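Lecture notes, part 5. Sequence design as translation. It can be helpful to think of inverse folding as translation between two languages: the language of shapes and the language of residues. The source text, in structure tokens, appears below.
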């Protein structure tokens, strides 16, 4: 079956040159965006109960833009002025770029990984004398603490925000040709909101090995997956699939 409609389980991009917009135009398909999950801030009171003293840390590990936002939110709420000497270890260029919302690059020390968390670990290991804080969600990937413990560094995780399943009752249905997921929680949201969901002819696209495995464990078929050697991004994988399918 040809692809005409796609639902991406994320917020609609705010940048005009998003690859999804380019895909929509180049392949003549309709792409809708709907966040299947959302983030809720953890209160300062809850963070204090975790016995977190921001002044004790000399380096921050940032795995997402959410982590950036909520770290600085908590700093502001706690009236903690982040010192110029603070080091930032960002999982990807996208996270490092987003950090500019709060930090002037030339005045700070920023270290950037390729994309995966494991790519960032050698940089963290070089600064093993630092005291690292990992502000994160309650849905942290299991591999992250394992990798950090292997580095034998002084680090601490603190939950600064929570990932929550969105209410999708306002959607009439999810009858799209392709559903796109970027996290296991997105799959959980689909099945919680639509417990009688039947895949039928709907194709499912997943980003990341864990998301793909979660989908398959739930009895769903994954037709498109990224990243891969040939398709490092989701939009590239979608474009290839659409070209092949719509040509038939």
């Amino acid at each position: 079956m040809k692809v005409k409609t796609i639902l991406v389980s994320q917020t609609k991009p705010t940048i005009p040159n998003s690859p999804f917009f380019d895909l929509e135009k180049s392949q003549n398909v309709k792409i809708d965006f709907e966040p299947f999950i959302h983030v809720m801030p953890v209160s300062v009171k809850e963070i204090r109960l975790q016995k977190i003293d921001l002044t004790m840390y000399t380096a921050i590990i940032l795995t997402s833009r959410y982590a950036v936002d909520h770290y600085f939110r908590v700093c502001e709420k706690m009236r903690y002025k982040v010192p110029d000497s603070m080091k930032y270890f960002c999982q990807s260029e996208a996270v490092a770029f987003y950090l500019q919302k709060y930090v002037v690059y030339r005045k700070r020390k920023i270290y950037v990984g390729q994309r995966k968390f494991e790519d960032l670990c050698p940089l963290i290991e070089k600064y093993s004398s630092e005291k690292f804080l990992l502000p994160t969600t309650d849905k942290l990937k299991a591999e992250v603490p394992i990798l950090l413990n292997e580095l034998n560094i002084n680090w601490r995780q603190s939950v600064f925000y929570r990932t929550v399943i969105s209410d999708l009752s306002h959607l009439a249905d999810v009858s799209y040709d392709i559903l796109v997921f970027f996290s296991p929680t997105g799959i959980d949201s689909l099945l919680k909101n639509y417990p009688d969901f039947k895949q039928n002819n709907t194709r499912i696209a997943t980003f990341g090995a864990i998301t793909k495995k979660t989908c398959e464990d739930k009895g769903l078929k994954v037709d498109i997956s990224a990243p891969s050697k040939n398709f490092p991004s989701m939009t590239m994988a979608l474009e290839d699939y659409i070209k092949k399918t719509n040509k038939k």
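The translated text above is only one of many valid answers, since several sequences can fold into similar shapes. Residues 234-247 form the longest helix (14 residues).
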